[in-house]
Amino acid sequence: MTLDELARRTDCRLERPEDGAIEILRVASLEAAQAGDVTFLANPKYRVHLATTAASAVIIGDDTDLTSQATRATVVRAAS
Question: Count of alpha carbons within 13 Å of 65, Cβ hemisphere only?
Answer without folding.
Answer: 2
